[in-house]
Specification:
alpha+beta; 2 helices; binds coenzyme A; 17% helix; Aminopeptidase; single chain; globular; 37% strand
Length: 121
């Protein structure tokens, strides 16, 4: 992605021994809700098929959100693939009501999700 090497972009990976099995990248980008907050967009959240359902995705996300909070982020958001919405709800994200749409890239159903990283945001 063009912004992969931006100084504000943060990439996270989860390893089992020396194999990268989980990825999550965050790009500084104002959110569709609470535009005034310092926000990062999550993209490329994925766990390798053969190790899904073991808690690795949740663990990498928790680590990433702690690191983003330390960088001053107040909110994270994403265009979540609808088939993964249950994962995000299980890890504390909120669905933006009425945001359901088809991705222009993949043409798959997506919904906007958001998670606050600070009290009262
Ligand atoms: C979605 C994805 C990243 C989840 O990663 P994972 O490592 O398998 O997730 P975890 O094992 O950490 O699951 C954490 C929780 O979410 C739940 N969960 C995971 N995937 C889910 C799904 N697709 N639907 C409903 N719940 C789900 C788990 O049951 C678990 O709940 P629990 O804590 O109550 O047991 C992974 O399934 C994936 O890569 N899918 C294909 C790519 C994709 O859709 N990426 C998201 C694009 S927006």
């Amino acid at each position: 992605m063009p912004r992969d090497d931006d100084p504000t972009t943060m990439h996270f990976g989860g390893f089992v021994e020396d194999r990268l099995v989980v990825s999550a990248s965050f790009y500084l980008a104002s959110a569709p809700v609470h535009e005034e907050l310092v926000s990062y967009q999550l993209r490329f959240m994925a766990t390798d098929f053969d190790v899904q359902g073991r808690g690795y995705g949740a663990r990498v996300l928790a680590f990433a959100l702690d690191a983003l909070r330390e960088e001053g982020a107040a909110q994270v958001w994403a265009y979540a693939r609808d088939t993964a919405l249950g994962f995000y709800v299980a890890t504390g994200w909120n669905v933006v009501q009425g945001s359901e749409h088809l991705s222009a890239e993949s043409h798959l159903p997506h919904t906007t999700i958001v998670k606050s990283l600070v009290e009262g945001a």
